[in-house]
Amino acid sequence: MRRMTETGKWLHDKWFRSLPADLKLTYLYITDNCDNVGIWEPDEDLVLFVTKIEQPNTLPFGEGNGLLDRMRDAFGDRILITDKGYWWLKKFCDFQYGPLDPAMNSKPIQSYIKLLKKHNLWETYYKGSGLDKDKEEDKDKEEDKDHAIANRSEAFMNEVLEFKDSYSMDMLTEFISYWSESNRSGTKMRCELQPTWDTGRRLGTWKKRSKEIKGGKGRNDDKYL
Question: How far apart are CA 158 and CA 17, in angstroms?
Answer without folding.
Answer: 68
